[in-house]
C-alpha cells in the first residue's frame, strides 16, 4: 500500500483542464440537442398525426426504459453496422442529446398542454398559422414554465456525459484514465475529477439561475 | 432480425439480468438505510450532523456516479479498501442513490403540514414521539412515489457497474455486440430485459402507493 500523494496531479493539471474543456463542450452540444429535439418530440406527441406520433411515443418509451450506456453502445457500435459511420464524439453527443431529449419532451409536453387555449385561439385569430402559433406563442410560454425541471435535466446530462468515456471519447474521465495509466494513482486522479465535475456543476447551476432570472424578468 | 441468434444468446442474458437484479436490490437496501440515516442527520438539532448530512448529499449528487464507482474500485486499494467488482458495484451504487433517496425522504417529511407537528407538540408529545407517531407515518406515504423514481433510476444506473467489469446486462450486451456484430439484436434483448425489470418495479411501486394512499 503506497501513501497518497496529490502532488502528482500538478504535472497533469493542464491535461485534466483539457479533458474538462471537452466535457463542457460535449455537454453544451448535447444540451442544445436535447432541448431542440425535446421541443420537436413534445410538439409531435401533441399535434402530429398518428403515423408520426406513434413512432415518437415508441422511441420515447424505449429510451426512457433503458440505460444511457446501452443506448451509447447501440449508436456507437450499431450505426456502423448499417453503414452509418459517425465519429465517436458525435455518437456521444447524439446519444446523450437524444437520451435527455426524451426526458425534456416529457416535461415540455406537460408544459405545452398547460398553456391556456385562449393563447392559441387569440394567436390564430390574429392570423398566425398553426406552426407560427406554436413557435411564437405557445412554446415560448411552455419553456418559461418548465425551465426549472429542464435545468435539472441539464445538470444530470453534465454528470452523465462521463459515460461517453466508455466509448473512448477523450473527455475528463478519459483524461484521468490516461494519467492513471502512467502514474498508477487512481485515487488522487478520481478525487480531482470529482472535484472538477463538482465545480462544473456549480458553474452550470449559476448559469441556469441567471437564465431563470432573465426569463422571470420578461414575464 | 436474426431470431436464431437471439434464441442462442438469450440464456446468457437471463443470467446477466439476474446479476443486474441482485446488484440493484443490494444497492437499494444500502441506499434506503443510508438515506434514512442522512435524513435523520439533516433534521437533527446538531449543527455538525446537519452539515455532514448536507455535505454528503451535495457531493454525491454533484459528481458522476461513474467517477464514484471508479474511485471506490480503482482508488480504494490505495487507502486499504480492496473490494471485488461486484461488492464495489453495489456499495458504490448504494452510496450514490442514498443521496437522491435522502432528498426524497426529506422532501416528504417537509411536505407534511406544519400544523400536525404543532398540534402534536401542543398536546404534550416530545420531539422524537412527534416524529415517530405523527410526522413519519404521514411522510412515509408521500415518499413512495419519489423513492420509486429513484429506484427505477438506480436499476438503469446499475449498468455503470459494467465499467468496473461486473458481468451484468450492460456488460453482456457490450460483449455480444462486439463478438456477433449484430448490435440491434443484442440491444433488443438487453432492452427488453431492462424494461421488464423496470416495469415490474414500477408496478410494485404503484401497488404500494395504492395500498398506503391517503384517500
Detail the topology: elements first, then pairings.
The complex is a heterodimer of chains A (219) and B (215).
Chain A: H1 8-47, H2 50-65, H3 68-81, H4 88-113, H5 117-125, H6 130-160, H7 172-183, H8 186-217
Chain B: H1 3-42, H2 47-62, H3 65-75, H4 85-111, H5 114-122, H6 127-157, H7 169-180, H8 183-212
Helix pairs in contact in B: 1-2, 1-4, 1-7, 1-8, 2-4, 3-4, 4-6, 5-6, 6-8, 7-8
Molecular structure report:
The complex is a heterodimer of chains A (219) and B (215). The N and C termini of chain A lie far apart (60 Å). Chain A has a single domain (8-217), classed as MetI-like (MetI-like fold). The longest helix of chain A has 40 residues, at 8-47. In chain A, helix 4 (88-113) packs across helix 6 and helix 5 (117-125) crosses helix 6 (130-160). Chain A has helices at 8-47, 50-65, 68-81, 88-113, 117-125, 130-160, 172-183, 186-217. Chain A is an all-alpha fold. Chain A is globular. Chain B has helices at residues 3-42, 47-62, 65-75, 85-111, 114-122, 127-157, 169-180, 183-212. With 215 residues, chain B is mainly α. The model of chain B has no long low-confidence stretch (mean pLDDT 92). Chain B has one domain (3-212): MetI-like (MetI-like fold). Chain B is 82% helix and 0% strand. Chain B is built from 8 helices and no strands. Classes of the chains: A mainly alpha (219), B mainly alpha (215). Chain A binds chain B through residues 1-2, 4, 62, 65-70, 73-74, 77-78, 81, 159-163, 165-166, 173, 180, 185-191, 193-194, 197-198, 201-202, and chain B through 59, 62-68, 70-71, 74-80, 156-160, 162-163, 169-170, 173-174, 177-178, 181-184, 187, 190-191, 194-195, 198-199. Chain A: The chain crosses the membrane at residues 20-47, 59-80, 86-103, 163-184, 190-211. Chain A: It is found in: Cell inner membrane; Cell membrane. Chain A: It comes from Aquamicrobium defluvii. Chain A: Keywords: Amino-acid transport, Cell membrane, Membrane, Transmembrane, Transmembrane helix, Transport. Chain A: One of its GO terms (cellular component) is ATP-binding cassette (ABC) transporter complex.
